[in-house]
Write the structure tokens for this entry.
Amino acid sequence: MTAVTTPDQQLASTPDDRSADRAPLAPDVAVPDLRTELPGPIARQIIARDQAVTSPSLTRVYPLVVRRATGCVIEDVDGNRFLDANAGIAVCATGHAHPAVTAAIHAQVDDVLHYCSSDFYLPAYADLCERLAALAPMPDAAVFLSNSGTEAVEAALKLARHHTGRPNVIAFLGAFHGRSLGSLSLTASKVRQRAGFGITVPGSFHAPYFDPHDDRALTGAAYIEQVLFAQLTHPSDVAAIFVEPIQGEGGYIVPPAGWLADLRALCDEHGILLVIDEVQSGIGRTGTMWACQHDGVEPDIMCIGKGLASGLPLAGILARRSVMDWEPGGHGSTFGGNPVACAAALATIDLVESELAANAITVGDHLRAGLEAQRADQPVLGQVRGRGLMIGLDLPDHDAAGAMERACFERGLLVLTCGERSIRLAPPLVMTVAQADIALAIITDALADIASGARP
Ligand SMILES: Cc1ncc(COP(=O)(O)O)c(C=O)c1O
């Protein structure tokens, strides 16, 4: 059994002590706590070894080498402690190593690690699908589980074509739906994600997403009707419209009331399926289980992933039973719905329902109010957008957003850029108001750096 050190003992330890310490981190440990230059000596070694053997397609945004984590705290291999405001891109929903989640994982590991859910029955698979069907934002849902968001989108794409018998699909500029070839056909976020990969799935069209800087621009349902349906594809050839209820990678953009409902109405008019991609916005992040519930819009198919199992790989689709009409063998997955991931997801959903969705609203409102208050004094801080703990803030340009990301890292706050010039805050849903205040103080300092032109 490992010895448990108190937070005081941990804080008193030197970086060298920390890197040798095998005990779990205490959840109330103080952050930020930076003890070496960044990256530190051990991190530098690991980064050099990693870069020698890993794919150059990986975009490591800053030199963070994670060793252990708890709640909203991440400790690197040199013993530096950071406040996590990105949750591994909105994945570690219940915080790092929530005891209820790790207990559920341990219990399942002791029973059975894996058996293929596409070919056999497993209680955890049935339990989770039952739970998800009950939580679905549409009536009478059926569930298919996969491993990653991109696989969920692939499943939705296949199901939409299969059910409608139609070839074409529509998605939005700025969208991110994944990087496998089918989902990449819908992704229209950064051109480097497509460069050199040739022809994606034919019949994929794009319309502008709501523009937060020009609310009179022709976007969404109006654009699809007036431009795409008039000039590029007849509606009767369109199987589905894929949409993120809050555009994630594209800049944490929240469309106004009615924008999503107009898409629903357009789909209903033409027998098109509405596929809502909740991979980033789902699982309580915006204060409701699914972000589309803020708009009262019911999808025909919904993609889920990321935060679903608090960090274990799990994703999937929920679809109206009348839509999920593919035949046995039409779709499947060796690992999708692995029982350990399902157990983690059930514990995650319990936590989100009982307390974390509400906490996302409390702490998210606090963060947004704190950011709004800074706008008066800080001209480099532009629009602040978001719902719950899915918050985007605009900087003047792309370079300023990158510099801000780095300035936060160097002060011990982990954030990520999104869109052309935004920073996203997507912390674990367990973030406290006190931790949000620490994040706000660091953001204030980092913004002052950006304003003074002192770019890291
Ligand atoms: C909205 C959305 N859909 C799909 C994906 C793809 O998920 P994954 O990276 O798990 O394949 C992402 C990933 O960021 C996403 O944000």
The chain has two domains: 7-98+355-452, 100-351. The pocket of pyridoxal-5'-phosphate is lined by residues 89, 148-150, 153, 176-178, 244, 248-249, 277, 279-280, 305 (CB under 6 Å). The chain is about 40% helix and 15% strand. The first helix runs from residue 7 to 12.
